[in-house]
Amino acid sequence: MNSRFVPPRRSSRLARTVLVATALAAGTVAGTASSPDPTGGTTSTLADGAPAAQPTPTAASRSTRGREDSGAGTTSFVGWDTDARRTADQPSADGVLVAPAQGRRLALQQRVDGEWLTRSTLTLDHGGADVARVALTRHWRHAPTTRWRLQASATATAAAATSAVKEVTVTWEATDDPTLPTVLVTKDRPVRPAGYEPERLVRPEGPGQAGDVRLVPAAARAIERLAADAAAATGRELVLVSGFRSADYQEELFGRYAAQHGTSGADRFSARSGHSEHQTGWAVDVTEAGVDFTRFGGTPSSDWVAANAWRYGYVVRYPAGGEEITGYDAEPWHLRYVGEDLATYVHRTGTTLEEAFGVA
């Protein structure tokens, strides 16, 4: 669910007066000009945000001060942190004091493809100054670096104003907790605890299945939507081949492959017991109806899945070109649910999961 502007719990008049007086004493409410916003460009609006005023970006400092877009005075954005480094699981909100405030609409905008897109808005309530909790929308997690600004609308007594640009750098951290979609399982990172099995597994409804395919609920619901949309787009049914596998079953499976291909050969395409993503319930193998899963690559369904799985929180876990990083041959049929935000990050950066987590 998208983050949004959340109005703060209103402080008392006395507390607000003290806060504004403190800002005035520090010289931050007055505001001063400094280096201009280097990004330039135009302003647009997304479906989830109302149109914002579109003045030319104004001179703004790397601190908390901004300038209005005419000679009507200055507007301050006290508390707007312009240089933020966060892990993806950290909060992304600032308490921002805007002065003057009364009747102004505050738009949160993100720089995307040369334009400023309005992600969300709120209306300020108090006259001299208002304090708002400004939370970035989920889009800040979708790329290594994103850029944001605030834009305050014009009123009868205040010109439209633009804040300094906030640059947000995000890093994703892997977890060893198999109950979370950000768990990382590799040849060097086993599933812990040994013998782990999810508390709840369900069978996805809708897509065809070549056996008893069970997944954790979030992954199951997502693959239902993915399979339905894949079939609608390609005219071919997407079939689920394999979901959760126990550690014991994985040991048996690897043993069979090793007997056929040798241990080193099996290691290229099969995980050893305790090192399979399937044990977490977050991974599923798929194919196109009538096609052996090992020949899934290059089919219309495979091409669609490779281009669109991220929209449903899935990634193609072992992509072509990533063999030396993942340790496995390319497997276009092996999908891993990681959640929509991380899947978007992996898609847009063109990385493997290991690279996204910084452990490659």
- When the domains are counted, the total is 2
Order of helices and strands: HEEEEEEEEEEEEHEHHEHEHEHH
Reading off the top of the CATH hierarchy, the class of the largest domain is best stated as: Mainly Beta
Shape: elongated
Question: Main sheet, how many strands, which sense, barrel?
Answer: 8 strands, mixed
The overall pLDDT average reads: 84
Gap from first CA to last CA: 30 Å
Give the oligomeric state of the chains in this entry, treating copies of one chain as homo and distinct chains as hetero: single chain
Tell me the radius of gyration. Answer: 25 Å
Q: Would you tell me which CATH topology of the largest domain applies?
A: Immunoglobulin-like
Q: Regions with pLDDT < 50 over 5+ consecutive residues?
A: 1-72
CATH-defined architecture of the largest domain: Sandwich
SSE class: alpha+beta
Q: What proportion strand?
A: 15-25%
By DSSP (H or I, 4+ residues per run), the number of helices equals 8
Helix content: 10-25%
Give descriptors for this structure:
single chain, about 350 residues, Immunoglobulin-like, Muramoyl-pentapeptide Carboxypeptidase, domain 2, eight-stranded mixed beta sheet, 8 helices, about 25% strand, DD-CPase-like, VanY/YodJ_core_dom, Zn_M74/Hedgehog-like, M15 family metallopeptidase
